[in-house]
Design a protein that fits this description.
Elements (H helix, E strand, L loop, with lengths): L2 H19 L3 E5 L25 H7 L6 E5 L6 E6 L2 H10 L1 H4 L3 E3 L4 E6 L7 E3 L2 E4 L4 E3 L4 E2 L2 E2 L1 E4 L4 E2 L2 H20 L12 H12 L1 H14 L4 H14 L11 H17 L12 H11 L3 H11 L7 E2 L1 H9 L5 H8 L5 E2 L2 E2 L2 E5 L17 E5 L3 H8 L17 H16 L2 E2 L1 H8 L3 H11 L2 E10 L23 E5 L3 E4 L2 H10 L4 E12 L8 E5 L2 H10 L9 H17 L3 E5 L2 H7 L11 E6 L5 E5 L2 H11 L4 E6 L2 H14 L5 H10 L1
Parallel strand pairs: 5-12, 19-23
Antiparallel strand pairs: 1-2, 2-8, 3-5, 3-7, 4-5, 4-11, 6-7, 9-10, 13-17, 14-15, 16-17, 18-22, 19-22, 20-21, 20-22, 24-27, 25-26, 25-27
Helix pairs in contact: 6-7, 6-8, 7-8, 7-9, 8-9, 12-13, 16-17, 23-24
Length: 673
């Protein structure tokens, strides 16, 4: 045995002794000494699934064959380990269950090991993206070296203790959520009580005391704690915690007031904005009206009905397989995620996440790992409202059969709206909210059995009120006035031109009425007493209706000029402007934040290839360095929407809203407020 082997054996025995003293059962592995199967035990380890080896056995089992160390999971060690094979799956777990992410963590070749102490018996099994290591399982322990990779500890907290409720919450996260995503089931997840005070003590050192207080208050609210209980558990710790450097001095009273305000803000956030409330009608209407297609709105409703949680990551293939069950084609899913219907005003409706590589061997180099992959993130209601620039509204329920086709989807939204509101609205408005014409809307009414009560306003025409009627121009239709007419009795109708009104006043024997079509009343499952109802109308109201309908009532006067100016303003606002900034190696860090969110900057990187073609890539810091290496300094441009200052402000505000901003971004947001 050479000196290196002796040193390795002493290190393994020392580490194994430390673990056994803490109550863990350990076994030796071949490691790099057995290249064929480095994770295979060098001994028969069945006996150590029930008992912990003593010091004499450690000296014997760690012989010249041993090159690594493993910890036996299960009740013998009271240990449960979650083995993540994908770092994206690990990050998603940390976002959704942050109270359980603060535990002993080891970096592996492909992902992470999370250690938990529990006395419950948990069988070992797999989940989508990793394994649950329980009975009859073991994991490689740090600092073992397997296949050239050293397992290293990245979080040295003690393994978190799990009671039955906490264990159920974690297992339900991996399994019940998967069933909801693919089978459309809605299962109530089991929640457990979390030690909010201990959670705050860990988080405030990492993300700051204010962010930690808000996050802990949100967790406490979700598990049923009221404000008094949260203030009793957190306020004293918050007031006594140390302020960050360069922070303005505060009195205890000011800090106490700020803490109560932060907890109150966590409770003011309405639960209606969560994904469980459904897709707001305002979001659906904006998508249907602007895109002239229903694929994006239908895909969002499918994701909600299937139980996909907000911020959950998924691949294109997963969305295609799910949408096929609801009658949405593969082509439509591609259009909603990456095609013509995937953006609104230059922003992605469903966020994209670019995985540049998977960290293999622990070396962050572009030459190793898998090629870039494109993932998508299920949007929350708040994000949809922000991107589409709409306010919150109620959500009408749609069933699985309503999503089978575009007409069925629009017809279902119209049915639920009429049933809920019984609107008295113009047909053009009702058709516009669905992105169809009035003829299609009337077909929907006939198919649904909608009862329509037409409303007509009228007033008597006199020589004094004759001037309210329009003059017929040479280019206008002879026998048509839109939405209003002249009537004598119940049968005779005439176009409402001024010269016709004058002739009728001279020759007609009866009273001449000016009739105006008013918004109809729509009801469902309620019989209409009369299909036509007349209501009084004033001359002033008639003139206002003509102006609202866009008629030229002043012959090229101020209304025409105002309408033209408003059209030019809308056209100017609809154009998306990009400011291009030349990048160099030293300026990349200043212009592009170190952020995993692909849309933190509303823009892209652009360069010109040797063949003269334009190359566009996402505005990420790592992508920028690779493009500079490929195309050279000064040849890579960062195209950002509007002005760079507006982009920085929106980036900082978004980061502060998500409580994930670092000190630099927080300072930037406060300085620009």
């Amino acid at each position: 045995m050479n000196k290196q082997s002796k040193k390795l054996r002493k290190q393994l025995i020392y580490r194994a002794a430390k673990l056994t003293d803490r109550g863990y059962s350990v076994i030796p592995l071949y490691g790099d000494c057995g290249a064929a199967e480095p994770k295979k035990p060098t001994i028969k380890w069945r006996a150590y699934q029930k008992r912990i080896p003593d010091q004499r056995e450690l000296q014997t089992m760690f012989d010249t064959r041993a090159g690594a160390l493993a910890v036996v999971c299960g009740q013998v060690s009271q240990l449960l380990v979650i083995d993540f094979d994908d770092h994206l799956r690990y990050q998603q777990f940390c976002r959704h269950l942050p109270q359980y992410a603060q535990t002993y963590t080891v970096k592996t070749r492909r992902g992470y090991h999370l250690y938990f102490r529990t006395g419950e018996k948990v069988p070992s099994h797999q989940f989508d993206g990793g394994d649950i290591k329980g009975e009859r399982a073991y994991v490689v322990a740090a600092p073992s070296v397997v296949a050239g990779f050293e397992y290293r500890v990245v979080q040295r907290d003690e393994p978190a203790d799990l009671d039955r409720g906490a264990l159920d919450a974690i297992l339900n996260y991996f399994h019940i959520r998967a069933q909801e995503s693919f089978a459309g089931l809605r299962v109530k997840q089991v929640s457990s009580k979390v030690d909010i005070a201990a959670m705050y003590g860990k988080l405030q050192r990492e993300i700051g005391r204010n962010n930690a207080l808000y996050r802990c208050a949100s967790v406490g609210k979700r598990q049923g704690m009221n404000r008094d209980e949260l203030e009793k558990a957190l306020l004293q710790r918050y007031v006594m915690s140390e302020a960050p450097l360069k922070h303005a001095p505060e009195t205890f009273a000011e800090r106490f007031t700020e803490g109560r305000r932060t907890i109150a803000s966590a409770y003011r956030r309405s639960d209606a904005f969560h994904q469980a409330s459904g897709i707001p009608n305002s979001v659906r209407e904006r998508l249907l009206a602007t895109q002239k297609s229903s694929v994006a709105a239908r895909l969002l409703d499918i994701m909600f009905i299937a139980g996909w949680q907000a911020d959950a990551l998924f691949y294109m293939s997963e969305a295609v397989s799910l949408a096929a069950e609801y009658g949405l084609s593969r082509k439509s899913v591609h259009a909603a995620l990456t095609g013509d219907h995937s953006t609104f005003n230059g922003r992605h409706i469903i966020s994209r996440r670019y995985v540049e590589y998977l960290d293999i061997g622990g070396l962050k180099s572009g030459s190793r790992g898998r090629p870039a992959q494109l993932l998508f993130q299920a949007p929350s209601v708040l994000r949809l409202m922000e991107v589409l620039e709409v306010s919150w509204s109620p959500s009408d329920l749609v069933s699985k059969s309503d999503l089978s086709s575009s007409h069925a989807y629009r017809r279902a939204l119209h049915r639920e709206y009429v049933k809920r509101v019984s609107p008295r609205s113009p047909m053009s408005f009702l058709a516009g909210r669905l992105g169809v014409n009035t003829r299609t809307l009337r077909r929907y009414n006939a198919a649904l059995g909608v009862q329509v009560c037409e409303q007509v306003g009228r007033f008597s025409l006199t020589w004094d009120s004759l001037k309210c009627l329009p003059r017929r121009g040479r280019d206008q239709l002879k026998n048509h006035t839109p939405g209003y007419w002249l009537a004598i009795g119940e049968s005779a109708r005439f176009p409402a031109w001024r010269h016709i009104g004058a002739a009728l006043l001279k020759r007609a024997s009866g009273e001449v009425q000016v009739c105006v079509r008013r918004p109809s009343l729509l009801t469902l499952d309620k019989p209409v007493a009369e299909p036509l109802v007349y209501e009084p109308l004033s001359v002033e109201m008639f003139m206002r209706l003509r102006v609202w309908r866009g008629e030229h009532v002043t012959d090229g006067g101020w209304i025409d000029r105002l309408r033209g100016f408003a059209g030019r303003v809308r056209a100017r606002a609809a154009r998306i402007r990009y400011e291009k900034i030349s990048l160099r190696y030293e300026s990349v860090a200043r212009h592009i934040p170190e952020d995993k969110v692909a849309e933190s900057i509303q823009g892209y990187l652009v360069a010109e290839s040797p063949a003269g073609a334009e190359v566009r890539r996402p505005a990420r810091r790592g992508v920028a360095y690779r493009m500079l290496k490929e195309f050279g300094e000064g040849n890579v441009l960062l195209a950002v929407r509007d002005s760079y200052r507006d982009v920085l402000r929106s980036m900082a505000e978004r980061a502060l809203r998500l409580d994930e901003a670092d000190a630099g971004v927080s300072l930037l947001a406060r300085s620009m407020a």
